[in-house]
Amino acid sequence: MRTLTTPFIALSAGMLFVAPWIINGAPYESTMGLVQKVFYFHFPSAILFLAAAIVCGINSARFLFWRNQRADGWAVAAAELGFLFGALTLVTGPLWARKAWGVWWVWDTRLTMSLVLFLIFAGYMMLRKYGGPGSDRLGAGMALFGMANVPFIYVSVNVWRTLHPMTSVVPTLPTDMGIPLWFCFAAFTMLFIALLNLRASLEHQRARVEALYLAEDQA
Amino acid sequence: MIGFFRVAWQVMRKDMTIEIRSREVLLTTLLFAVSVVLIFAFALVREGRAPDDVAAGILWVAISFSGTLAMGRTFERERYNDTLRALMLAPADRPAIYMGKLLGLLLLLMLVEVIVVPLVALLFLAPIFTHPGMLLALLVAGTLGFTAVGTLFAAMLVRVRSRDTMLPILLYPITVPVMIGGVRGTAALFQATPDEPVARFWIGLLLAWDAVFVTLALWTFEPVMTE
User: Which among A109, A130, A145 is the top mutation candidate for probing chain B, defined by the most B β-carbons within 10 Å of its own β-carbon?
Assistant: First the structure.
């Protein structure tokens, strides 16, 4: 995985650089016009936001129940990326919604779920930063609870009528809109994997330095 | 299984004995809940008339705010005397200790609700006696879900420096489903023409979530509380 980091960063940087031209070349959506183009960044960020939640939840469980120390590094990395991509999703979403629905925000299922998930990530990061000793275990408990909770938030808000387009919209997009979308998705995914690798290895090194310090103290 | 409930009962009885002697958590929580309701009354009541359809929301806000306070205080007491360590060293199942703490807090919050619900009814004209059984079911189910998560988090945070600010930050996003269920269900009962099917639907959903939350908390309590 580590060896992929540099080519992935280079490739995704190149792809994100040319992305504006490709997006510009895509046809205009008939009712929403120019604003619809924010979708090419909104969709990948939203998917990776959820991916980060899954990675964080699984690794927290591995850390908590199987005592896998390295899993904690992955969980931290995923949580920080989740915060980043969540912020991107929550900024690009309202920009589009203002034009498409006429309002910045609605309390629709997906929007509410994203917001709550974003708050859970923020809480997790605060706990890790200000929690002091032992906060890794607490963070893992929090993350596990948070991720397991997401489906319930989804169901509970779903009782209200939903405005957000269904997932089935994406596979039915016309090709000339689909190509820029999957192009951006690939670029974002590579960026995500590269950053996840970098952050996790940084966290592993930090844990190792800490262990060495402790060993030195005891010697 | 019998051992599990005996330990839970003992832990709860211990907490209740302390509470009956000092009444500290009950009285502070109660006063706090009453203050929250009064602040809402000052903020929302115009010319002697409360706006329609706010009673359910205010009731649940008061319960969740004061609940956070009670959870923090219960575990602060354990930390202050370093008795949580003793509790953890006891030759008993950790999940049973969690269950005892949960039942104690639940009982405490139900006592607070005995005062707060009529107060909200009085100030915001909520008809609490049209369907008392369903209202009780909603209150118990909602409070249980909220307390199940809160007890786990408060216990986790005992050793953390900034626990008083951390508890609400972590607890509120996670208990969103319970809050939605509680508020929607109660609002359906408080309408001019109560909507029983909607309230019954939310009671069912809340009970399902209670089961999930309690199971998940019992499951995570052990590894999280291991030093």
Answer: A145
Q: Coil, helix or strand for A33? A: strand
**Phi, then psi, of A85 in degrees rounded to 5:** -70, -30
Q: Cα separations (Å) of A82 from A120, A124, A180, A201, B13?
A: 10, 11, 23, 17, 43
Tokens of B199: 């309230």
- Residues from chain B that touch A157, judged by Cβ atoms under 8 A, are 180
Q: Do A64 and B181 touch (CB under 8 A)?
A: no
The answer to whether B170 contacts A142, with C-beta atoms less than 8 Å apart, is yes
Domain-by-domain residue ranges, chain B?
2-225
pLDDT per residue as tens digits for the range A36-81: 788 888 889 988 998 899 999 999 999 988 988 889 999 999 999 9
Cα gap B110→A169, rounded to integer Å: 47
Q: Which chain A residues contact residue B205 at CB under 8 A?
A: 155-156
Q: pTM for this structure? A: 0.85
> H-helix or E-strand containing A126?
helix A109-130
Q: Facing residues of A33 across strands? A: A29
Question: Among candidates B43, B29, B37, B31, which has minimal Cα distance to B62?
Answer: B37
Residue of B nearest to A153 (CA): B177
Residue-wise pLDDT tens digits, B171-214: 998 888 899 889 989 999 998 888 888 889 899 989 998 998 99
